[in-house]
Amino acid sequence: MALLEVRDLTIALRADGEDTTLVQGVSYQIEPGETLALVGESGSGKSLSSLAVMGLLAKELVVTSGEIVMEGENLLDLSDEEMRRRRGRDMAMVFQEPMTSLNPVLTIGAQIIESIEENLGLSRAAARERAIELLKEVGVADAERRLKQYPHHFSGGMRQRVMIAIALAAEPKLIIADEPTTALDVTIQAQILDLMARLCREHGTALVLITHNLGIVARYAQRVNVMYSGRIVESGPAAEIYHNPRHPYSEGLLQSVPRLDQDRSVPLAPIKGSPADPFMSITGCRFHPRCDYAGPICRQTAPDFDGSVACHFPLDTQQKDAS
Amino acid sequence: MIAYILRRLIGAVLVMLAVATLVFFMLRLVPGDPIAAMLADAGSEEAREAITRKLGLDQPLPIQFGRWFGNMLQGDLGASIYGSNQPVTKILLEALPRTMSLAFLSFIIALLIAVPAGIISATRKNTAADTTVSFFAFVGLSMPDFWLAILLIIVFAANLQWLPAIGYQPLSAGVIPWLSHLILPAIAIGTGFSAIIARMIRSSMLEVLQADYMRTAASKGLPTRILLLRHAFPNALIPVITVIGIAFALLISGAVVVENVFAIKGLGRVLIQGIQNRDYPVVQGAVLVVSAFFVLSNLLVDLLYAVIDPRIRYS
Prior knowledge:
The complex is a heterodimer.
Chain A: E1 4-15, E2 18-30, E3 35-39, H1 46-54, E4 61-70, E5 73-74, H2 80-86, E6 91-94, H3 108-120, H4 124-137, H5 143-146, H6 156-168, E7 174-178, H7 186-203, E8 206-211, H8 214-220, E9 223-228, E10 231-237, H9 238-243, H10 248-255, H11 296-300, H12 317-322
Parallel strand pairs in A: 3-8, 3-9, 6-7, 7-8
Antiparallel strand pairs in A: 1-2, 1-4, 4-5, 9-10
Helix pairs in contact in A: 3-4, 4-6, 6-7
Chain B: H1 2-29, H2 34-39, H3 45-54, H4 61-73, H5 88-123, H6 128-142, H7 145-159, H8 175-209, H9 212-219, H10 224-261, H11 267-276, H12 280-308, H13 310-313
């Protein structure tokens, strides 16, 4: 059985009684211990759909339809209190901004220990021991002393390690990492991702890795969902999408990041235009205004998602070689 | 941390010395003549000169200042030039506990109202609870404290006869008499003060609740109580403390007015009487004490900062 199954999830922004759909009919599942990547530009709905899984959507954002089923139970049916008990224990999250994601007036130790106490019911002393172990595990040296320090004593990379320790504190089955390396130096990014991948493997934790960098996905994720404008436009094994993207948007994302397996003289090609405005209605495929391959039908009808790609003219290998 | 405290302390002493200097010269600039006030129009020219000489007011200003400043450093603030010629230090020491008691109690009352009110209105933003708090905060802010003082006397002292209307009992006479005399004036002063703090806490809390670290805390599955009190409130308090320090002025100026309504012979009464009589030494002494109050409260704010915000301790 899948650990988490998101079915037809639709999220809307509710303002003045009017709903603007931000995430439309997103479905995916993740097996225990698996790493799934959600890839897309800002505003593609990848963070929103994950916050919905955590039950942490802001008040104005409402799930208008769909199910989020974790181990056979629809999380959307749970009360706030039941949902709170699951947070930290069953699923945890690592956020994008390590600089602002830790409370500046509490020690690192206090912020790790409180989660252990709350979720595992350990005594203060036992929780402290576990916090020290966790810090060591995420590669923070001199853990005992560091426990008493405040976030401002830590660099961005170190803070993100602390965030990972907090996420791991109660041995959750699922960790959602929302752009965990975007705010970090490039040299630190790989370290953090490697660390997360290793820890999830060792602990058997499933990982939802949210990123806009399709390039890093192939290395860390087994499967990928590419999202555009609140919808999944392509889904499949990471290696396959990395080498043979079928949706023009996936192709665009790949061409906009440098690749080691590519001639360095080839200039990076950004995707033209800007992400679709959710407040503007677009008939047909929501990507067509930015798509090089769009035909007349793309302007009229939105393509259905066939389980692998949502495109009227999916790129296959020959086509890509020809272009 | 110790270096931080020392730096603040030295700063506070320097400010006090500057204030003392300013007070002395500003008072000399104020129009009006203490001798004229003392003698009304009755005194002869000789009497006037005799008194002027006796008080040292015939000396050049720098010499007057040097003498006063030197004595002040030794704790001698001179004697009242009016009535019984009591030493100023004695007058102030008598008045100070009353005003301190009043200010302290007002402060406690203000916090008791403001902290829960601010937190509730922030967490229930735009609900009936929030609107109610906002309404009362508005009323509390708009209502002059002397008027509230009179209302309180009418209701609780005159009609219900639960509490004494005027006067003061020192703490040494017992907590109950002390409290029963101070509670009405403290409410009168504290209400307006609490309205300001509640509004500040509300807006500061609203901002903090949006912070990334609040989302992190929520993602750990912590109960709301801990989210609010451990994670949000201390952060929300940082900007509020500044305002509390500055708004301490309101407490003192409130005390000056309200002490008169309740006939409490505190600092406010001393100051007002001193000004009416052009009683230089008394006014100088009283203003000095009030400024010391300010400097001290600001010092406390600085120290509180360091307690709450670890980032300040080391900078």
